[in-house]
Known about the structure:
- By secondary structure, this protein is mainly α.
- It has helices at about 5-20, 25-80.
- The mean pLDDT is about 75.
Amino acid sequence: MGVPSGMELFIIVAVIVLLFGGKKIPELARGLGQGIKNFKTAVKDDETTVATTTEKVDTTKINATDTTTEQTTVKATETKAV
């Protein structure tokens, strides 16, 4: 089952034109193109959102580690002072 030859393509195109009409085909193609464009935009926005969320999580982990280290240092200093 390979690629259709010239005559087979002509028959397929003729059937599509008969089913949908000459005016409806450009509208269908335009709608398909807009759908693909919207899909690509959504994928890019999702990748940006995931990257931003990952950066925020990493920053939160760093801040939590810094706070724990500071609390440990303060407790050690208080113990030595007593």
